[in-house]
Amino acid sequence: MPVLHSPPPVTHTGCVGCAGTCDGGDEMKVYGDQDADISYISKKVVAILGYGNQGRAQALNLRDSGVSVVVGNIEDSYAQTARSDGFEVYSPAEAAQRGDILALLVPDEVQAEIYATSIAPHIRPRQVLDFAAGYNIHFGLIRPPADVDVIMVAPRMIGVNVRRAFETGGGVPAFVDVWQNASGQGMEIALAFAKGIGATRAGVLPVSFRDEVEIDLFTEQALWPAIVNALVTSYELLVEKGYAPEAVLMELWGTGEAAEIMTEMARTGLFRQMTYHSRTSQYGTLTNFDRVIPGGLKANFETALERIRSGKFAEEFAEEKHRDYPVYQELRKKALAHSLNEVEDKVRNFLDMAFKAGTHQKAAAHS
């Protein structure tokens, strides 16, 4: 079984914008393009380790920003894509030797293994280790030597959106931090990297490795389970009461209206976006806000957060990985066996046909 180290003390050296506390008591600094100087990385070689979701987007953006990039990846379809995109592709170990900045952009659950086998044997003084999430550093699964910089540049969007925003002249926000500042230029390098991927166009916040991973895990283990549970419970209840499964599913999430509401929450505000809904909708939501989910929800959320902060979840997940994910496989199998999956297929086919019919009618009208 993997041995987990206790989370090391939080150095939090990157949060110069909030006096190193990020406790909500100070106004947090937001870094923009004017705060970042790409020359800190323009003469260095960035090795992107893992050409997947974030890897491809960040590699392309950095190259378009004038940065020299190589890719480290095993021989698979991702390596083929990287070559098609015009990158030199090496094994992770060789890329780690060629790079001055090593961006470890493989999934959290395999980072420690790749670090141990491909990076640690070759790491040299003054290299920079860049992470897009705080998990492995905060929980002590990766322990770099003292003579390298350890930074985090964590975009708050999936890779395809990181690339799409960059191509249209924009960017997506990111968190940055410096865990270990061996060179004395860790923050400058982190901000330059953030600028290279377009993040400073949207705004970069100084957030510690610890806070990034704990907030991220909290949303995955408290917020989203509550939302998904509410959707499934609503679906099951309404179907039990005789409502058509297709109609229920379309109303709850099938049409994407819920996603549009979430997008408007981000643009306008969680409560302010309610003005775009009917008075009936607003009244129903506000009067039932405390009735539907009583105060016990906060207590459950606090329990989830404590499991994360104490390291208990990281220990549990390490054991699950060691056993080849038996609990995950069983729960996923159960979720995919739910009857709503078949209804989703029906609704999706119906909506696809309606969309195609509408497209054909629109084309005919303009012909």
What does this structure look like?
The radius of gyration is 23 Å and the shape is globular. It has two domains: 16-207, Rossmann fold; 212-255 and 293-365, no CATH class. It has helices at 39-42, 53-64, 77-84, 92-98, 108-119, 135-138, 159-167, 186-196, 199-202, 209-240, 245-254, 257-268, 279-287, 289-292, 296-309, 312-322, 326-336, 340-365, and strands spanning 45-49, 68-72, 89-90, 101-104, 128-131, 149-155, 174-180, 204-206. 54% of the residues lie in helices and 10% in strands. With 367 residues, it is an alpha/beta fold.
Helical percentage: 40-55%
- Report the uncertain regions: 1-25
- Radius of gyration (CA) equals 23 Å
> Mind telling me the CATH class of the largest domain?
Alpha Beta
Brief description of this entry?
The chain is α/β, with parallel strands linked by helices and 367 residues long. 54% of the residues lie in helices and 10% in strands. Strands 3-2-1-4-5-6-7-8 form an eight-stranded mixed sheet, with helices on both faces.
SSE blueprint:
Blueprint: H1 39-42, E1 45-49, H2 53-64, E2 68-72, H3 77-84, E3 89-90, H4 92-98, E4 101-104, H5 108-119, E5 128-131, H6 135-138, E6 149-155, H7 159-167, E7 174-180, H8 186-196, H9 199-202, E8 204-206, H10 209-240, H11 245-254, H12 257-268, H13 279-287, H14 289-292, H15 296-309, H16 312-322, H17 326-336, H18 340-365
